[in-house]
Fold:
Amino acid sequence: MNIFQRRNILRNINTLDLIPIRRHHHQSEENGLITLIVPKFEKKWMQKFFVSGHRQDHHKIKLDELGSETWKAIDGVRSVNNICEYLRNQKEEPIEDLENRVSKFISMLYEQRYITFQQLEEAKK
Structure:
């Protein structure tokens, strides 16, 4: 599916109704924060060809507190709105600010291809 098809699907859906799905693994740190483990290359043959033996084949991306809690809440079932509700029950921030921050964070995760959305996966089929 090309970028224009994805854009058309996402344009017709409210951001808060989207259901994010993780595309990468993560590690939990001792302090409760999350570190994303993102491969340098998605195709295995590229990893073999371009990554030499003494280098790591992945990037580590550390998330802040809100980012970590949001990442933990992404389970492929909850919508962005449900994730905001879940976080609001854990944090005591105003809902407008929380929805805005989580929506922007989810958009950034999608732009960097760390997540996808269930609606896009269903459209592929």
User: Anything to note?
Assistant: Helices lie at 3-11, 44-50, 65-73, 80-90, 95-111, 118-124. Residues 95-111 form the longest helix (17 residues).
